[in-house]
Amino acid sequence: TKTINIALVGNPNCGKTSLFNIASGAHEHVGNYSGVTVDAKQGFFEYNGYHFNIYDLPGTYSLSAYSPEELYVRRYLKDETPDVLVNVVVASNLERNLYLTTELIDMDYRMVIALNMFDELEQSGGKIDYQHLGNMIGVPIVPTVSRSGKGVNQLFDTIIDVYEGRNEAVRHVHVNLGNVIENGITPLKNMLKQDPTCTREFSPRYLAIKLLEGDAEVKKILEGADSYPALMKLRDQEVKEIETTLNEDIESAIANEKYGFISGALAETYTPGDKEETK
Ligand code: GDP
Ligand code: MG
Ligand code: K
């Protein structure tokens, strides 16, 4: 029997624990992680001839490593390297939920999106062409209602397909960050590519973006590299140029471009419902 390690990643309250419970037959408390001690819950089950290890990770809005939850999820993804990530998103709140998705895309994980709380989207009259959206972002999307279990079998069928390399939507997409930022990424990426110690764990593009953002964890990863001083010098130069040109600090500039990418993809595929969004 093949074993597939999967991890549930998503914003707080998107339905990860409900999905974990329904998939693994566990009876974990549905609720937020409180306090600073964060821990991933692990479950096991068989489905369709495969053995699944499933991890329910703490909820995060991004992977900037600013909160204990974000740091935990990042370390987990780096150290445990799950076979397939399940990015759980709230169907009626995609603008916000897909921000984390753009970061996971940058990290180049094999991934499936559970378009959860699909019942609420339908009830509100919202519409989404999720197949088209999935093709655009290179990640298969499966509607789910993790509270009732609707769509969960299809989700796991899709996870198996992705694991076996059989899904046609899977494709590496660059979240385009606009000319100004892309012009800063390119030289950094090229320098990273030439230093073999840089590329072991993450793609050069991901490292270049995180370097521009001034990410402390990525700096730590790169500290031992021969090209580290040159990298940092180039980084400072590029950041200065981007901030001057866009008249904005680098982190906001990158975040804005990511939201722009999401808006663009949703404009083509998504019609929100009438009901007021309370989350
Ligand atoms: P987590 O924080 O991501 O682990 O989310 P939970 O599983 O704790 O769910 C948060 C809340 O959303 C709970 O009240 C769940 O019952 C509810 N919920 C989860 N999945 C769904 C769904 O598909 N549809 C609806 N309507 N509610 C859901
Ligand atoms: Mg939970
Ligand atoms: K709810």
User: What helical percentage do the residues reach?
Assistant: 40-55%
Describe the largest sheet: 6 strands, mixed
In sequence order, what are the helices and strands, one letter per element?
EHEEHEHEHEHEHHHHHHE
How would you state the average pLDDT, rounded? Answer: 90
For the terminal residues, how far apart are their CA atoms? Answer: 41 Å
What is the CA-atom radius of gyration, in angstroms? 19 Å
Which segments are poorly predicted (pLDDT under 50) over 5 or more consecutive residues? none
Strand proportion, as a percent range, falls in: 15-25%
Biggest sheet, strands in spatial order?
2-3-1-4-5-7
- The helix-and-strand class reads alpha/beta
**Hetero compounds:** guanosine-5'-diphosphate, magnesium ion, potassium ion
Number of helices: 11
Count all strands and give the number: 8
Large-scale geometry: globular
Model description:
With 279 residues, the protein is of the alpha/beta class. 48% of the residues lie in helices and 15% in strands. Strands 2-3-1-4-5-7 form a 6-stranded mixed sheet, sandwiched between helices. The protein has a two-stranded antiparallel ribbon with strand order 6-8. β2 and β3 form a beta hairpin. α3 (94-107) packs across α11 (250-269) and α5 (130-137) runs antiparallel to α11 (250-269). The mean pLDDT is 90. The structure holds guanosine-5'-diphosphate, magnesium ion (MG) and potassium ion.
